[in-house]
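Batch job 17 of 40 flagged for manual review because the log was empty.
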Amino acid sequence: MTHAEIEEFITQFPLYQYAFLTPGEIEYDEKTRLFCKHECPGYGSSWSCPPAIGKIAQCKDRCLQYTDALVFTSVTRVTDISNPTEKAKIQVTHEKMTRIIEDFMKENGLLIYTLSSGSCSVCTKCGFPKEKCRHPGDMHPCIESHGIVAADLAEYCNMDYYMGENLLLRFSIIFFRQ
């Protein structure tokens, strides 16, 4: 499957921006874990977040098993960017779109690994740490959990990162190979 075939499919969605690159072009930074540990409620409470997701070196190795990566964003107008309920609703919409694109790529013979904005939201309540992940094939770990700084990735791909107080950008990365 070519980039052009993927591009033809994804342009039917309300994506804001997208770019193709190789996993080796992405910078993986240990410092993102400080943010995860001290600022994110997903830390230590989800299979898709640290420490369960593994060390940055393991996450990087996982990503480098793929030959290509598709980075894309969706943008939504919000009334209050600090409202967690509003942000969660937008996350659901972005994740549905990510899942459809991911399924299309799988159906066309690609092996994929997907990262998205925020902690995995497949289950209402994650079973971590007492139960194994109930949906490991559907889980989308957080981009930052892998040491990837979304702002740096956006800059590298010549994409927008911050668009003002009333517009919320969500990112996904689908790593893929034949």
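Reviewer: the log was empty due to a logging misconfiguration, but the result itself is present. The CA atoms of residues 78 and 136 lie 31 Å apart. Unflagging and moving on to job 18.
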